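Exercise 7b. Backbone tokens:
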């Protein structure tokens, strides 16, 4: 094992940055602990302005040759990148679980395979870029050209998969990358760096600088040689990034928080709706898309709540490495305190926990799946993102009231709706403010479709052609007709 490396779940993981194809150490380091049981996992190099500058310089140096490969040349390497992720899946999954407390079975069965698919999909999609638009006097040749160095800042709830969601289109577009992983769960992104090298990506094409957001992240998004900034995280952090990006007129793409409605119409399949409501507790509720405000037609509210209570029997809280577990720990003591604070203040304001409402016996960072009734619309539990296993219950008597409840918020990331009458369901879905509305399903993200938020839930869209619209400079070459005759 190399000097600055650690063993996590039996897997060797470097604790240093990856800059220009080399491991680079910092004098400053920060500690990472597993939320599963508090085990110390590593002391990780904490980058700052100098490490960020070196990484951006490495990415700038690598950019001309990477861009010159063209979509075909890049696709060959990215296919290999995807294959290498698949080969290392059995290493990546347990490291991710130890690092952020996510379900091991979910990482093995869904998240890591999806990460590989993210890379492969965008490699192929880039081959289709460009079009020709014929007009009366000219032929317009639309080109998607590489834009430069992309700064990617990723969250801790699914760091490996969500990183590839950005890395895939950025690399396929011809950008080179400086990635800043989350400080609460940085280790799987260290593996991603090694995998990129094993796939043959040239030095400097993908760089990883670990560190604290206010230091490494702030230096990265303020760097004048960064051409694009893609960030997934909180609305408050996005505002700070937006201020820094404005100084350099750097384009940004933000996928931010949510306080999503889960609407159940009276004619819905209540069994399916109840199971899906219970599934909002997956990942300990640390999912920005979760439908945390359950808005139910009054005529079926009691019946649905009974069915949700029954479905909770399958939502086992415990060690995320166990196959039967469905709700693991919260990520960090600070985050536990935040979630607990929301719950205690809701109780003080007259909210009634139908179930849950406190720490779970599984361990220090485990919180009971919780449902509140009696939450008024002006209370923070209705309006603010908790990012924990806490739902609130609301009823309505008309579709107009349901829509008003759903839209009475500052966010607009997602919504979920269950109902059997297609015309009615679609009429409600059309009026809900959300970047994505799932009807009779949940959490399906097709890579060809746009994804992002309205209002304070984001700027721009990821997925399909929309990712390339962001990561590329789009140029039109307008050629006068018959001018070369």
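Sequence design result:
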């Amino acid at each position: 094992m190399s000097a600055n490396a650690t063993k996590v779940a039996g897997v060797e993981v470097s604790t240093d940055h990856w800059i220009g194809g080399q491991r680079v150490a910092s004098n400053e380091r920060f500690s990472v602990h597993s939320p599963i049981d508090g085990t110390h996992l590593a002391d990780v190099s904490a980058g700052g302005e100098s490490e960020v500058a070196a990484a951006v310089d490495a990415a700038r140096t690598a950019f001309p040759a990477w861009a010159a490969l063209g979509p075909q040349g890049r696709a060959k390497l990215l296919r290999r990148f995807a294959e290498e992720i698949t080969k290392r899946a059995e290493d990546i999954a347990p490291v991710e679980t130890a690092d952020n407390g996510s379900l091991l079975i979910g990482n093995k069965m869904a998240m890591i395979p999806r990460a590989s698919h993210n890379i492969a999909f965008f490699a192929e999609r880039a081959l289709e870029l460009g079009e020709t638009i014929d007009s009366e006097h000219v032929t317009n040749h639309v080109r998607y050209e590489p834009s430069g160095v992309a700064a990617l800042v990723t969250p801790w709830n699914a760091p490996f998969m969500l990183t590839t969601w950005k890395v895939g289109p950025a690399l396929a577009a011809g950008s080179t990358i400086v990635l800043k992983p989350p400080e609460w769960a940085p280790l799987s992104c260290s593996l991603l760096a090694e995998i990129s090298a094993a796939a043959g990506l040239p030095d400097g094409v993908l760089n990883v600088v670990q560190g604290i957001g206010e230091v490494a992240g702030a230096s990265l998004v303020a760097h004048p040689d960064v051409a694009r900034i893609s960030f997934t995280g909180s609305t408050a952090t996005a505002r700070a990034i937006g201020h820094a990006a404005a100084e350099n007129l750097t384009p940004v793409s933000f996928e931010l928080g949510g306080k999503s409605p889960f609407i159940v119409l009276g004619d819905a399949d209540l069994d399916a709706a109840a199971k899906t409501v219970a599934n909002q507790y997956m990942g300990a509720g640390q999912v920005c898309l979760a439908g945390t405000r359950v808005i139910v037609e009054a005529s079926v509210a009691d019946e649905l709540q009974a069915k949700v209570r029954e479905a909770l029997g399958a939502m086992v809280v415990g060690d995320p490495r166990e196959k039967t577990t469905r709700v693991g720990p919260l990520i960090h003591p600070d985050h536990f305190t935040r979630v607990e604070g929301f719950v205690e203040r809701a109780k003080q304001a007259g909210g009634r926990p139908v179930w849950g409402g406190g720490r779970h016996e599984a361990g220090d960072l485990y919180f009971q799946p919780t449902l509140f009734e009696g939450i008024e619309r002006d209370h923070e539990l209705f309006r603010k993102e908790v990012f924990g296993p806490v739902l609130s219950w609301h009823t309505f008597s008309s579709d107009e009231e349901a829509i008003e409840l759903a839209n009475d918020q500052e966010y607009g990331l997602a919504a979920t709706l269950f109902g059997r009458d297609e015309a009615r369901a679609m009429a409600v879905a059309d009026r809900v403010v959300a970047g994505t509305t799932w009807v009779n399903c949940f959490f399906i993200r097709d890579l060809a479709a746009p994804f992002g938020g309205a209002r304070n839930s984001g700027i721009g869209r990821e997925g399909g052609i929309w990712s390339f619209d962001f990561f590329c400079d789009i140029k039109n070459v307008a050629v006068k007709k018959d001018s070369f005759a």
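Instructor comment: The chain has 15 helices and 26 strands. The mean pLDDT is 97.
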